[in-house]
Write a structure and sequence with these properties.
Chain A contains 16 helices and 8 strands. With 507 residues, chain A is mainly alpha-helical. Chain A has 3 domains: 364 residues; 68 residues, no CATH class; 43 residues. Classes of the chains: A mainly alpha (507), B mainly alpha (373).
């Protein structure tokens, strides 16, 4: 029964997060693109730029509303479905969420009203400032939530307090300047910028194919593809840094993303491959049915050294004394000692037996870093689902590379003044819009599925983090969410398509 | 500030929570307006002007609610864990009411909107009725308690399978919910009178205000009498006791709360008086300030004077206080510094609001606006 509540709670959170992430990247990217377009309008005074700005702004508004609807759920689900988590790490995790509300949400919602309803009510410059502030607010919101998420991937700046039985913040700056958080933030907003660009380029391509609003579509496509090209390069660079952080702090995630079983120095990167479905952890079967590798690349990209050793799944589960890697079973054993020490400490405090409490405290501190492992049952549990991590990661990387090529091609054809006649490229631009959404979702799958079995990496197992409620109650709300989110998504798509078909109107 | 004791920081944060609660309750005029949509508007144009008047504010109400949740999480994580993770159905029902609100303004009038205009208006109606009443009921349980138990490790669970829905069987909770429901309508009427130029709507709002004020004041009196006659849970170190007339004692023993409550009530009454008898359009400002003061005062009856903030009906010793449910000294301090941003945020919200509302909204303006709801 215990496993079911974890599974359903995860399913509900994943559902909410995946739906939320359909809308957020477009907001992150499109707000900046709209702000750039409005800046051109204010600088040049040309009314056509006002029309273009308003067209994309209308689509932004449709997307923004549903992003809010799904976003509110995520904040409250930490309490409703992960109440143990909320208590055990709330002292650290709650802070960035509250700061997000104060610094970002108010900025977004206040200036959002000016951006949409302020034309003619406030000065041109004030309106432009509001548009930029909505873009900055959206990105600030992403910053703080990714500080929180980065901390889940690589917890820093905290200590376990035995009296309150929770982790407590010991250094705020370690939490907010966590390198994992920043690499995640930059990579995540980068994916949003690329998504916004794909959206603008793809829809403009549709106008060009239809031969409608061509002048305005061409202007949009220049802004979209330029922004897209720059941000695609940014996305690849930040993706590299993100993978470097994973290599440093989450070896189990890296091993699963690359499906490496036996680690070695000068490790290759799998460019593409098909996993052997019969392969089990610890057996000697081949890892792949076929694969194309790039020699040394993983050691270089992961650790920035050609000779670096990359730990494999078997090394991490069974240990590799030569490379100083402890086995999972040893960590679990030490974790259980820490749990026992905590119980002894609590009882001794209750009995007012201070010497015993002191002894238990010392023992706990010795084994503290293994504490979370004590709740795992099987050494193999430390490895996240391999196939999901591997394929999600590789498809995401492949798509990211394609987007760079696409933006480059679009700009090249614009320069040659051949874009309108290059129907294949225009169709590719349209079909790349859903691919952008897919890449973004897969990125989150890599990040969150790859974090398993931990809610807080190596500190708090996901199974320990849920609310103690009946599985039925979560099943009920899960299906209600499916129903309502799907209905709203259909509404959003229908409205969006109709607005696009209506085309760009004079301002 | 670094020298402040843990208790002082806990009290500071509880006070901020009361301010956020007050701000949120004031901003629920949006919900009240949504509920009144069909009563105040008789034509499609009138409906549009009301929706657009509310449409420029609804996100601030929404954000206030999110902020209220975020601040509780950061400052009182155990309360957040126990209440949200225990009264699961109540909070989920509230969330559903707010999900459907978030899209309704934008999608209601859009062509090919799948569910149809009526459904989106029904969503707004649900948010303005069920949503606000449930929030009131959830807040009332801070006085009447919830069915939870927490263990030595501070992990908690609910003791029945209703997960908070049982709160609707307590008349005090329901009266509290209805009081907020009618207050939101009172405020909505005052807001429309101030914000909309269409005389027919304003006249209807004045008539509606007359009715809603009576209902609000009726429930306010019922809640006040009940609140000051029920028992509350008091704590001393780790022992919890039920004390008769606890909230009345707190009120009488704390002049700041008593004065705040009186000024708040007088301010709301003054707002009603100048609107109903002097044809004023400024009532919303007085009722807004009054509402914030009343909420701060009433929520301050909890948390201070050794009063628990969430009594447990299943095990009195599991009750939550600002001391046993708060974040650590370090986190409260850090967040205390962050809270200095609050006046800046309030400042720009006020300035933007003022510049956007310089002129009252008309049907013509809504029609000519490219991005009207």
């Amino acid at each position: 029964m215990e496993d079911y509540i974890v599974d359903w709670s995860r399913a509900q959170f994943a559902l909410t997060a995946l739906y939320h992430w359909i809308f957020v990247p477009l907001t992150l990217g499109l707000t900046f693109i709209v702000a750039i377009m409005e800046t051109i309008y204010v600088k040049t005074g040309k009314e056509e730029w006002k029309s273009i700005t308003k067209f994309w702004m209308t689509l932004l508004g449709i997307n923004f509303a549903i992003g809010l609807a799904t976003g509110i759920i995520m904040e409250f689900e930490f309490g409703t479905n992960w109440s143990n988590y909320s208590w055990i790490v709330g002292d650290i995790f709650g802070a960035p969420l509250a700061i997000e509300g104060l610094m970002a949400f108010f900025m977004e919602s206040t200036f959002f009203a000016v951006m949409f309803f302020g034309w003619g009510k406030v000065s041109k410059k004030m309106h432009l400032l509001s548009t930029w502030l909505v873009a900055i607010g959206s990105n600030l919101s992403a910053l703080w939530i990714l500080v929180a998420n980065g901390w889940m991937q690589h917890p820093t700046g905290m200590k376990f307090n035995l009296d309150t039985a929770r982790f407590e913040m010991s250094n705020f700056f370690d939490v907010i300047f966590n390198p994992t958080a920043y690499s995640k933030f930059l990579h995540t907003v980068g994916s949003g910028y690329v998504m916004g660009s794909l959206f603008v380029v793809g829809i403009s391509a549709w106008f060009l194919l239809k031969g409608r609003d061509t002048l305005l579509a061409k202007k949009s496509i220049v802004v979209g593809a330029t922004f897209g090209l720059i941000t695609s390069i940014f996305l690849i660079l930040t993706g590299d840094e993100s993978a470097h952080q994973v290599a440093l702090h989450q070896p189990t995630k890296l091993a699963s993303m690359e499906a490496i079983y036996d680690g070695q120095k000068r490790e290759s990167l799998i460019a593409i491959g098909e996993l052997n479905p019969d392969k089990e952890i610890g057996d000697k079967k081949d890892d792949f049915l076929w694969k194309i590798e790039i020699p040394y690349a993983l050691s270089i990209l992961g650790y920035h050294k050609i000779d670096a050793f990359v730990a494999g799944i078997d090394d991490l589960v069974y240990g590799n004394p030569k490379m100083g890697i402890e086995s999972a079973s040893s960590k679990i054993k030490k974790g259980k000692i820490a749990i026992e020490a905590l119980k002894t400490y609590k009882q001794a405090k209750k009995d007012n037996d201070m010497p015993k409490a002191k002894e238990a405290l010392a023992k706990f501190r010795t084994y503290e870093k293994y504490f979370g492992y004590g709740y795992l049952k099987n050494p193999k549990d430390i490895i996240p689902p391999i196939a999901i991590s591997f394929y999600s990661f590789h498809i995401m990387v492949g798509l990211g590379t394609w987007f760079l090529v696409l933006f480059g091609l679009v700009l090249w054809f614009i320069k040659k003044d051949k874009l309108e006649t290059s129907k294949t490229l225009l169709y590719l631009a349209i079909f790349s819009i859903p691919l952008g959404y897919l890449a973004g979702e897969l990125g989150w799958v890599v990040a969150e599925v790859g974090r398993q079995p931990w809610a807080i990496f190596e500190m708090l197992p996901t199974g320990m983090a849920t609310s103690q409620i009946s599985t039925t109650s979560v099943q009920i709300t899960f299906w209600l969410f499916v129903l309502i989110f799907t209905a709203l998504l259909i509404s959003e798509i229908k409205i969006m398509l109709t607005q696009i078909k209506n085309g760009i109107k004079e301002a | 500030m670094n020298n402040l004791s843990l208790l002082t920081l806990q009290q500071y944060w509880w006070f901020l929570i009361t301010v956020l609660a007050g701000t949120f309750v004031f901003m629920t005029f949006v919900q009240g307006g949504q509920f009144l949509l069909n009563r105040l508007a008789k034509t499609e144009d009138e409906k549009d002007v009301i929706i657009n008047s509310l449409g420029r504010k609804w996100e601030l109400t929404f954000t206030s609610l999110v902020m209220f949740g975020g601040a509780l999480f950061a400052a009182f994580p155990l309360f957040y864990a126990v209440s949200f993770g225990g009264a699961y159905y109540v909070w989920m029902a509230i969330l559903f009411c707010f999900i459907v609100q978030a899209v309704s303004y934008e999608y209601r009038k859009k062509i090919n909107n799948f569910l149809g205009q009526k459904v989106y208006e029904t969503f707004l109606y649900i948010n303005g009725s069920v949503g606000i009443i449930l929030i009131g009921i959830a807040l009332a349980t801070l006085y009447t308690g919830g069915n939870f138990i927490k263990d030595d490790m501070n992990l908690s669970h609910w003791t029945n399978l209703w997960y908070g829905l049982e709160a609707v069987t307590n008349p005090f909770n329901v009266a509290f919910g209805l009081m907020l429901f009618f207050l939101s309508q009172v405020q909505a009427n005052l807001y429309f009178i101030n914000n909309i130029a269409e005389e027919t709507i304003v006249q209807r709002a004045r008539k509606e205000l007359c009715k809603d004020s009576k209902l609000f004041l009726g429930f306010f009196i019922i809640v006040a009498i009940s609140l000051f006659s029920i028992s509350g849970v008091e704590y001393q170190d780790n022992s919890f006791t039920l004390v008769s007339f606890k909230f009345l004692h707190n009120l009488l023993n704390t002049p700041a709360i008593l004065i705040g409550l009186l000024i708040g009530v007088v301010s709301i009454l003054y707002a009603l008086y100048i609107t109903l008898y002097k044809n004023s359009t400024k009532g919303i400002w007085f009722s807004g300030i009054g509402t914030i003061l009343v909420v701060i005062s009433v929520v301050s009856l909890l948390g201070f004077n050794h009063t628990v903030i969430y009594p447990s009906l299943s095990d009195i010793n599991s009750s939550l206080t600002i001391e046993n449910s708060s974040g650590s000294h370090y986190t409260l301090l850090v967040m205390g510094y962050v809270s200095f941003l609050v006046p800046i945020v309030l400042g720009y919200v006020f300035l933007v609001w003022r510049s956007m509302d310089r002129e009252k909204l008309t049907i013509d303006e809504v029609k000519s606006d490219h991005h009207h709801y």
